[in-house]
Amino acid sequence: MNKQKRVAAIHDISCVGRCSLTVALPILSAAGFDTSVLPTAILSTHTGGFEGFTYRDLTEDIKPISDHWQSLNLHFDALYSGFLGSFEQIDLVADLFDTFRSNDTLVMVDPVMADNGVLYSIYSPEMARGMTKLCAKADIIVPNLTEAAFLLDEDYIGENYSQEYIETTLKKLSSLGSKMVVLSGVTFEKDKLGAAAFNSETGKISYSFNDKIDGYFHGTGDVFGSALLSALLNNFPLEEATQIAVDYTHMCISLTQKAELEKRYGVCFEKAIPYLIKKLGLYTDQVTIKSENF
Predict the structure, then answer these.
(1) Cα–Cα distance between 224 and 27 in angstroms, integer?
(2) Run of H or E including 78
(3) Domain segments of the chain: what residues?
(4) How far does the signal peptide extend, from start to end residue (predicted)?
């Protein structure tokens, strides 16, 4: 019997606003993967651009869900964590990684906790420091520049950095324990934006860029991470997977900009999904999908 690849996405649910699970689930599913979800919190809206949002911490639900999954002898080809709802969840998710990881499981941690030099409102410095424990268990981590600074307990230097700083930061982040690091939000030219990737097993550092579109767009980190994981699970090497994620994120932003949509609701990644599927090489013609995911 053929087996479809299965991913466990461990993120929050924002009921309004395209981010976290409402982004990860459709993107990973469209890329051909059986995607299971474990919500870490439920918010009425995401936290960017909205006030008065409700927040429910789901810490107490994580272990019972994990225990039930274990009783079913579930196997996951990838474990993908993002925003965590409490300090206690760091240990719970770390234990979940230990429980479900096998030799062929890819563990990806997106340490979603900060941007533009500032921690998100419900995060504490203690929680930011604790995130290093989870990163140590990952095969790949995907921080932005602000999150990298918090993980390394360094000052955030904004955009005043050199290529040497980026490459030193990549290696420092890898020393936390992950084999691969993708650092998002990297730019060396005013009209280009993208990511830097480091594979500690090969020692190779690569860069992926596309045209920069001015403005701040919510949820793009989740779009980027989900597209990156989709490419990696479709057997693209890190360098190519990173470029696919950069290009797809750029397409999502471009479509949102052209449609003049209200930015606080996130980017219209849905309209760009056919572009991602084409980049992943899943369509052999208009109707047939390749079977590499099975």
Answers:
(1) 10
(2) strand 78-81
(3) 6-279
(4) none
